[in-house]
Amino acid sequence: MTDPLDDGAQLRCPNDGILMRDIAGGWECPECGHTITPTMPIRIPQKFDGPSLRGW
C-alpha cells in the first residue's frame, strides 16, 4: 500500500537512505555527496499581480 503523501516527501539518497538536502539546482546527500538534479526544468510560478481577497 502506498501513502498518497509520499509524492511530496523529501528525497532520500539511493546509496545510503539519508535525507537529501536542497542545493541550487537539485538535492545532495550530506553523507556521501551523491547529487540528484531534475531532468525537467522547474518552473516557479510568477508573482501574483491582482487583487487580494479583501480587494486591497
UniProtKB/TrEMBL annotation:
This is Uncharacterized protein. It comes from the Bacteria. It comes from Microbacterium jejuense.
